[in-house]
Amino acid sequence: MEIRKILRTAQYCFGVLFISGALLSCNASDSTQNATSETEQVNTTAENAVFVDVRTPEEFSSGHVDGATNIPVDEIERITEEIPDKDTPIVLYCRSGGRAGRALKALTTLGYTDVVNAGGVNDAKKLKGK
Question: Given 42, 50, 71, 94, which residue is catalytic?
C-alpha cells in the first residue's frame, strides 16, 4: 500500500512538472515572437524615418546620427512644429534609451502613430546604416 502511495505522488509530481514546462515554453515562444515583431517594426520604420535625438544640444554636438534633428526630451512638444504630419515615421534615440522612451510616450499622447525608440546613439547609428 505504501508503494502505491509513493507511485501516485511521483506520477502527480511528474504531471505538474510536465504541465509547468509546457506552459513556460509557450510563454518563451510568445515573448521571442514579440521581440522579433518589435525589431522588424524598428527596421521597417528606419528606412524612411526622421531620426530625432532627444539629448541636450551639448550631447548632440558631441556626436549624432547624420541628418538627425535635435529636440531635447524636455522640449519634445516642439516636434509638432518640426514634424507636423503625425503619420511620419520617427526614430527616437538618446544616450541609452531612457529619455527616448519618455519622448515616445509623449509623442504617442500627441497622436503620432509611427514612432519607435532605437535606444542609444550607437544603436541608432547602426540602424541608420542599414
Answer: 94
